[in-house]
Design a protein that fits this description.
Blueprint: H1 2-15, H2 19-39, H3 45-68, H4 72-86, H5 95-109, H6 117-128, H7 134-146
Helix pairs in contact: 1-2, 2-3, 2-4, 3-4, 5-6, 5-7, 6-7
Length: 147
């Protein structure tokens, strides 16, 4: 389970006195615990992966804001957190792999144009969950449907 691996990594970070890594791992565990409490569940690997992906997305958004504001020091801190969090995500899909999944979903839907957007995104989202940025996937689907 991913949660066990995260806990072991937290212990290793404590032993190594790696304060930055430890801080990021603690934030991650707190976010997972919060989701478990909110939903009254024991988080599965898929749910933990969703939490991690959401945290990475938040940090990417923050980096853009910090860079726009001229705060490169804060952007670097956020990037360091992304590096730690990304270690727990499954291997990301390439643009070609995402394109093949999108083409398959379009073919299965039998629809064309923007009317197919929702149906195609639903099919693609299930196949790429945690392995691709959904904003990027959405843009690729839109490009394919309007082409």
């Amino acid at each position: 389970m991913i949660k066990e691996r995260i806990r072991e990594d937290m212990k290793a970070a404590m032993r190594a006195h790696d304060a930055d890594r430890l801080s990021t791992i603690r934030l991650l565990l707190a976010a997972v615990k919060q989701r478990e409490i909110d939903e009254k569940i024991e988080a599965t690997d898929a749910q933990v992966t969703e939490v991690i992906a959401k945290m990475v997305k938040q940090r990417r958004d923050s980096i853009q804001q910090y860079r726009a504001g001229g705060r490169e020091d804060l952007a670097q801190k956020e990037q360091a957190e992304i590096d730690v969090l990304s270690g727990y995500l499954p291997k990301q899909l390439s643009d070609e792999e995402i394109g093949a999944i999108i083409d398959e979903a379009i073919a299965q839907s039998g629809l064309s144009g923007m009317a197919a957007m929702g149906k195609v995104m639903g099919a693609v989202k299930a196949k790429v969950a945690g392995r691709a940025d959904l904003g990027k996937v959405s843009a690729l689907v839109k490009a394919r449907l309007t082409a």
